[in-house]
Each structure stands twice: as structure tokens, then as C-alpha cells.
Amino acid sequence: MTFKSTLLSVLERILAPLLSPILTYLALKKMGILGMNQRNAEFIAQYNPRKFYPLVDDKLLTKNLAIKASIAVPELYAVIEIEHQVVHLEKMIAPYSSFVIKPAQGSGGDGIVVIVGRRGPNYKRSDGILMHADELKHHVSNILSGMYSLGGHPDKAMVEYRVEFDPLFREISYQGVPDIRVIVFKGYPVMSMVRLPTRLSSGKANLHQGAVGVGVNITNGETHFGVWQNHVVEHHTDTGNPISGLQIPDWERLLTISASCYELTGLGYIGVDLVLDRDKGPLMLELNARPGLAIQIANRTGLAPRLALIKKRCAQQKESIQSRVAFVQKTFVHQPLW
To answer: Which of 28, 30, 45, 74 has a 20 to 30 Å separation from 67 between CA atoms?
Structure first.
């Protein structure tokens, strides 16, 4: 082996680990994949004034804003704000056989308890576990103490209607309620996915806890590819049923609700979480000022080109909610990149 070939071999071994991340970054950029740093600097920092964060970080505030704007949300049964009210919990929930208890300032599905029925003095959770009334009271006390809130601040507990999800999702969901996440930029819905509960996620529709994310064609509401634990999947991990080719009903209405959440909060870059109730139709659950990026994997396409197009369009004109939805459905024809 000559000195030149030896030198090249050594340089290759030294540079390969350094060049690999750079080459990966260039490849992802070429595909239009939005990275976390770019999302934070160019969209969250620029378009989400911090003074508006409480409007989405507090689910009770969000719900009240939505009600005033005539946006359909799950009915609120009760709010528990101070420890003294916990002793009256049984009386508050007495009229309801099923309900959801959640922290007003929780995140990632933490602290949410879904009650699907009663068995004697006990309450049956969605995972089949029975809870005594005293256990429910203890859980509510933990919510008030800030155990599940952002930053550990004192919180409020909300008791609300339990969504009965549309039969469309029965064969591709485990126990919990699937939800629909839509990324909205400057009032334009730019990308969407359905999040399907699994055994790993304990019936919760949260990707970081193990739910399946399924990309949805934003133009027509048809499902296609899926992602689970950073793996591309074509079937639900528990039911084994295919996740593509399903047509989500009331799709244009879902997009309209999502688009209207821009006027609701004044935040320019948000994730809107909705559910499709069997009887009530589309309902808005909550908003997120820092939506994740796995939605790009589920759709096999990047957010960056769509966001750039909306930036340019917003600089030229202002549009109504209906016009924004129509533009999105006409423009963002799904073209998977891998």
C-alpha cells in the first residue's frame, strides 16, 4: 500500500463520522424536511408571541374561547379549582356514567383518566382497571398540586364528556379515542395525521407514549402511511388491520375548524387536535403551540415547502377561512418523497 492510499484510508476513517451528519442534513433539507431548530427559530419564535401561550397551555381557557367562537368542543361537566372542592367529586360526577378527568395545564396526555362505566362503588377506566371514588379524589388532588402541569404549577381539574369515537376507527384503535392532529400556519392547514391509541400507549393518542401516527392526505382526508416508534408501519400494531385507504368523514369541516383556530388564539404556528365523535361529529380537543415533527414521517413528505408557500401567499393577500381551506385542498396534493 502506497503512502497516498494509506493517507486516503486514514482520512476516510476520520472524516466519515463527521461527514455523515452533514450529508444526512443535506438530504433531509433537499426533501423539505423541517428540523426542530428551524421550526423553533423560524416559526415558533417568529409567529407565536409568548403572551398568547396561556390561551393554549390552559385547556380550560382554550375551551372557553372555542365556545365563544361557536367551535364545537366536548361538553364541560365540572371544574375543580381548590382542594376543598375535591370532597364533592362524587356528587359532581353522579349524573354521568362515563366521563374524562384531565389537568387543565397538562401535556402529552399525562394525568388524564378516562372512565367508561361503573361497577358498584367503583369506576371502570378505559383500560379495564377499577378505581374507587377515593382513588379518583386522590388523583384530582394530585392534579391540583401541579403533578401533571407544565412547570409543576398549581392546576385545575376538568371533568368533561367522554368522546365516543366514530366507528370508522374501531378496527384500527386500541381502547382509547383516536384524534386528528392538523398543523396550521397563519390560518392555513398544511399537514395532518390521525393518532391511533395502542396497547403500548395505554389507550392514549400520544406518539411519544407509543401511539401510531397515520398520515392523512390534506386535500381529501384519506389515510395513507403510518409511523410507530420511528418505524414506518402499514398495519395497526395491536389489531393488525391496515391503516391506509380510510376516508375520514366531514373532512372539510375538520379543516375549517382547524383554520379558524388561528383567529381564536393569534398564534401563527399551532397543532390543532380534533376528534370525530360518533354522534356529535367533529370536536376540537386542544391546541399546541409547539407541535411535533413526526407528522412528516407519517406523511412521507416535508413541511418546509408548504410553509414557504404559505409565507409567500400571506405576504400578498389576506383570505377568509373558507378561502384558506379551499386553497390548501387544491394545492397540497399528496406526493410522498420516499
So the answer is: 45
Angle at 167 between CA 62 and CA 224, to 5 degrees: 80
**Mean pLDDT for the stretch of residues 28-46:** 88
Q: Which residue has the cell 427559530?
A: 41
Look at residue 74 and give its three-state secondary structure: coil
Amino acid identity at 227? V
Give the residue carrying C-alpha cell 366536548.
74
- Report the DSSP pairing between strands 212-217 and 122-125: unpaired
Please report, as a single letter, which amino acid is at residue 241: N
Is residue 158 classed as helix, strand or coil in its secondary structure? Answer: strand
Residue 258 confidence (pLDDT) above 70 = yes
List phi, psi (to 5°) of 154.
-50, 145
Per the CB < 8 A criterion, the answer to whether 329 and 252 are in contact is: yes
Helix (H) or strand (E) segment spanning residue 213: strand 212-217
For residues 119 and 130, what is the distance between their CA atoms, to the nearest angstrom?
Answer: 8
Looking at domain 75-160, its CATH architecture is: 2-Layer Sandwich (3.30)
Domain 36-56+165-331: CATH class, spelled out: alpha beta
> Domain locations in the chain?
36-56+165-331, 75-160
Kind plus residue range of the DSSP H or E element containing 122? strand 122-125
- Name the strand (E) or helix (H) holding 295: helix 295-299
3-state secondary structure of 270: strand
For the stretch 80-110, pLDDT in tens is: 999 999 999 999 999 999 999 999 998 877 8
Report the distance separating Cα 89 and Cα 136, nearest Å: 8
Report the b/e string of 52-72 with b at 16+ CB within 10 A. Answer: eeebbbbbbebbebbeeeebb
Helix (H) or strand (E) holding 271: strand 269-277
Residue 176 CA to residue 285 CA, distance in Å, equals 14
Q: What does the DSSP 8-state code read for residue 261? A: H
pLDDT digits (tens, 9 = 90+) for 184-207: 999 999 999 999 999 998 888 888
Q: Do domains 36-56+165-331 and 75-160 have the same CATH topology?
A: no
Strand 76-80 and strand 122-125: pairing? unpaired
What span, in angstroms and rounded, lies between the C-alpha atoms of 285 and 60? 11
